[in-house]
Amino acid sequence: MMKMRESATSRCYDLWSKFYDYTFGALVHKRQIRALEELRPSPGDRVLDIGVGTGMTLRHYPDNIKVVGLDLSAGMLRKAVDKIRDDNLRHCQVIQADAMFPPFAEQSFDHIIISHTVSVVSDPPKLMRWAQRLVKPGGRVIVLNHFQSNNKPVALVEKVVNPICVKVGWRSDLSLEEALEGVDLKVLYRFKMSLVDLWQIVVLTDRESAESA
Ligand SMILES: C[S@@+](CC[C@H](N)C(=O)[O-])C[C@H]1O[C@@H](n2cnc3c(N)ncnc32)[C@H](O)[C@@H]1O
After folding, report:
1. pLDDT digits (tens, 9 = 90+) for 27-40
2. What are the residue ranges spanned by the domains of the chain?
3. Which fold has domain 6-212?
4. Phi and psi at residue 11, in whole multiples of 5°?
5. Which of 5, 13, 128, 142 has most ligand 1 atoms within 8 Å of its beta carbon, as the pocket-test mutant?
């Protein structure tokens, strides 16, 4: 099975950063904003955006919360910093770090969003376990991503094209079940923006809060 490696990913996205907003970013921008709506933060909340990339979502967060964007790629983060400066987004900050080893204490964030990043890291369940540890009880973890189809012929195509996808920066064969292996978060609900959408928005929370919801 072909997997992602952080060392190659960082170089790959440094390159992507030069045209991301006009290509893949433009294609998925409406979905990014729809996923943000699922966070439902309260004033004063701290939100972690893992794999914030070029920061296309930053200007869409309410300015009465604190947003921390984390990313591996210096190139992607430079674009995010430009947006923070140009739009005077004082409630947003970004840091360069590897989400496989996030530099935060447990339960540091009220909510977490992982947009088009769970299939980019080398170990998706590890990322999701970190999300579980970093979010406060009752907080939401929103995952926007493409997941392998349940339809066998489509899943086969996703497997066949995976080596090419890995070369350009993501896996096409990650299933939601694999991403959530050993993760103590529960899916509250998930949806696609249209019937034939390739991406889905998954809303998770801790088991106890899910059971009392
Ligand atoms: C496809 S982009 C998604 C950017 C943005 N969230 C979006 O929805 O458009 C994936 C991002 O994840 C970042 N990334 C990949 N692996 C990472 C890791 N281990 N730690 C932190 N960021 C990572 C990449 O540098 C890239 O900016």
Report:
1. 999 999 999 999 99
2. 6-212
3. Rossmann fold (3.40.50)
4. -65, -40
5. 13
